[in-house]
Every structure is written in C-alpha cells, then in structure tokens.
C-alpha cells in the first residue's frame, strides 16, 4: 500500500511539474506549492531543490543538488552558483524540506539564505525566494510568508532627508556604490578569510540596511545579524546598540508579533545616501 501511495504522489508531482513549464513562475503560485509538497513533503531526509529561472522567471531547470540527514542539510554555495552560471540563470528559488513536519525556518535556514543572497547579489543572480516544505505547508523565508497560501505585500521604504524626500532610484549611483561596497567586503572575506580581523560589523550592517531600503525590502533583526562578520550573539548586541544610539529603529511586524524588522533612522539614511553619492569605497 505504501508503494502505491508513493507512486501516486510521484505521478501527481510530475503532473504539477508539467504545469510549470512555459509560465512565469510566482513563488506563491498554488501549482508550484502543490508540486513542492507532492514531490518533497513526505521525504525522510532533507533535500535542497533549486529552480533555476531566466529573466522572465521561466523555468530553465529543476534540480535536486544536495541531500542530508533527517535534521541537517549542508549547503555549498559554490555548487549552487556554478550551476546557475552554467545555465545563465537570472534568478533562483531555493527549496528544502523539513522531515520533522515543522515548517518554521530555523536560525540556520535564515543564516544560509542571507549568505546566499549576498553571494547572489555579487554575481547578479537573484535569490527570489527560499521555501521550506513539509507534507502540508510551504513557508516562504525571504517573502516572510507566515500564513500558508497567503502572500504578504512588500513594505515600501522611503528615505527622507530633514528637508524633504530623498531620491529612491533602483539605478541611482548611491545604491550602485553601496552594492559595490558589499561585493568587495564579501570578496575580501572569501579571499583573505579571518573576518574577525578585517571585519567592520556595524558598518556592514548599515550598508546592508541602506541597500535593502533602497530596494524597498524589509529586513528582520536576525537576518541583519547574519551580514556581520561576528557571532550571532555579538551581532544581536551590536544591533541593539545601534538602536539605542538612534542610528536604527525597530519596526514591529504587523502580521507576526514574534518578528521585528529594523530600518535606518531617516537622518542616517540621508547621510548614507550622501556618502555613497560621493563615490564608492
């Protein structure tokens, strides 16, 4: 009987997979969610599936790149991005399953996602979403989806100077220079290592916040801490010090009371814009 059920699920997954071909893929599309639950929700070990997409978010490849134990999955960025570059992919949707049945992302899931986002940004490959799958749920790590099947609208952030609105332009020089600064810092860590000697965690946090606000993306405190080159406990204390100094502000998540977002104080955001408009680091 178990074999019959597994075969039925396999056939259903193949049917849903066919529905994804030739369409622009939305991470919240019910066809995608059904396919992922059917194909991965009942697996006994963790697996990492990557959906490689072109610039129009059409599916280039659907591949399981890595597998792990019941409670742990090793993620190797080099493997993921080498394949993305081979396919000339513009974006990726990461998918992994939780055999435990708990659809909530772990701290390690969030940390891995943030690191992959940073690497992808340096290679111009967008991490569109990271979806955690169980037998009944799909949880969207990047999109902050806390209700299965319900997309949460992105918050719109505006940087305002004391005298009026600051410019927000996805192609502006300040944003380009801030992104370049992040890429160089990441490259320095990869080439030289020992971030505890060469890191500048507070400034790295502020750059990450500035880039996210320019891109109109929210950033939680835990996700921000991954950016720094220090342990999570130290990063959390540093994030609190930035808030206490009035450099950043905490913003409660109106949907999930357990989550707190963080953003730059408008005056600091204006000064950072002026800094990066003056040139790249």
Outline the structure in words.
InterPro entries: MPN, RadC_JAB, UPF0758, UPF0758_CS, WH-like_DNA-bd_sf, WH_DNA-bd_sf. GO terms for molecular function: metal ion binding; metallopeptidase activity. Residues 23-148 form the MPN domain. This is DNA repair protein RadC. The chain is of the alpha+beta class. It folds into 2 domains: 2-140, Cytidine Deaminase, domain 2; 160-277, Arc Repressor Mutant, subunit A. 46% of the residues lie in helices and 17% in strands. The protein contains 10 helices and 9 strands. A 5-stranded mixed beta sheet has the order 2-1-3-4-5, sandwiched between helices. Strands 6-7 form a two-stranded antiparallel sheet. Strand 1 (47-53) and strand 2 form a beta hairpin. Helix 4 packs across helix 8 (221-227). It is globular, with a radius of gyration of 20 Å. 33% of the residues are buried. The model is unreliable at 4-16 and 145-171 (pLDDT under 50).
Compact summary:
With 281 residues, the protein is an alpha+beta fold. It contains 10 helices and 9 strands.
Structural class, by secondary structure, is alpha+beta
CATH architecture of the largest domain: 3-Layer(aba) Sandwich
* Rg from alpha-carbon coordinates: 20 Å
**Largest sheet, described in full?**
5 strands, mixed
Overall spatial form: globular
Figure out the total of helices: 10
Summed over residues and divided by their number, the pLDDT gives a mean of 76
Pfam families: RadC
Keywords: Hydrolase, Metal-binding, Metalloprotease, Protease, Zinc
Organism: Sphingopyxis fribergensis
InterPro entries: MPN, RadC_JAB, UPF0758, UPF0758_CS, WH-like_DNA-bd_sf, WH_DNA-bd_sf
């Amino acid at each position: 009987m178990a074999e019959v059920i597994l075969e039925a699920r396999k056939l259903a997954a193949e049917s849903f997979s066919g529905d994804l071909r030739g369409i622009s893929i939305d991470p919240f599309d019910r066809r995608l969610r059904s396919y992922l639950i059917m194909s991965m929700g009942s697996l006994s070990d963790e697996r990492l599936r990557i959906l490689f997409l072109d610039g129009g978010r059409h599916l280039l490849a659907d591949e399981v790149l890595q597998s792990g134990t019941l409670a742990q999955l090793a993620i190797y960025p080099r493997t993921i991005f080498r394949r993305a570059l081979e396919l000339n992919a513009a974006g990726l949707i990461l998918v992994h399953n939780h055999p435990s049945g708990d659809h909530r992302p772990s701290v390690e899931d969030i940390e891995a996602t943030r690191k992959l986002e940073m690497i992808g940004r340096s290679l111009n490959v967008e991490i569109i979403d990271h979806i955690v799958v169980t037998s009944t749920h799909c949880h969207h790590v990047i999109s902050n989806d806390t209700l299965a099947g319900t997309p949460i609208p992105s918050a719109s952030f505006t940087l305002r100077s004391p005298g009026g609105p600051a410019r927000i332009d996805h192609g502006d020089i300040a944003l380009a220079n801030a992104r370049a600064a992040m890429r160089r810092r990441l490259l320095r860590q990869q080439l030289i290592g020992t971030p505890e000697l060469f890191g500048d965690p507070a400034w790295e946090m502020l750059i990450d916040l500035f880039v996210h606000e320019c891109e109109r993306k929210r950033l939680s405190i835990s996700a921000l801490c991954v950016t720094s080159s220090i342990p999570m406990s130290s990063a959390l204390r540093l994030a609190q010090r930035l808030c206490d100094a009035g450099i950043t502000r905490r913003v409660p998540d109106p949907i999930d009371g357990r989550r707190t977002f963080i953003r730059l104080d408008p005056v600091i955001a204006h000064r950072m814009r002026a800094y990066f408009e003056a040139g790249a680091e």
